[in-house]
Every structure is written in C-alpha cells, then in structure tokens.
Amino acid sequence: MYVVCNDDLDIAIDEFVEEYLQPPDVYMLDKVYFTNWESPDRCSFCGKKPIYLVV
Predict the structure, then answer these.
(1) Structural domain boundaries in the chain
(2) 48, 39, 40, 44: which is closest to 13 by C-alpha?
(3) pTM score
(4) Per-residue confidence in pLDDT tens, the chain, 55 aa
C-alpha cells in the first residue's frame, strides 16, 4: 500500500506491479474512508501532501 502525491503516482504503481504482479486499485484519498485508519500526511516517496491511495 502506498499513499502518494500526484508526482509519485507512476512510481507507486510500478512498484506495486513489480511486487504483486497485478495492477493496483487507485483511490483518491479525499473519497475513501476506512475504520481505524488515518491517512498519513506525507507521500510515501517524497514527503509532499498525498492525494492517492494505491492498494
């Protein structure tokens, strides 16, 4: 799972495919909600504000 900014979305998708050998689901963070989970406030790669959840 990756929480990423717009600039790093392609990197997250590539890493996900490499690891799991299938395409990920991509969600906009402002459109999803999970019980007992808060979105990190930084991109998994660069520290910018995240926009996408890649799972």
Answers:
(1) 2-54
(2) 44
(3) 0.89
(4) 999 999 999 999 999 999 999 999 999 999 988 888 888 999 999 999 999 999 9
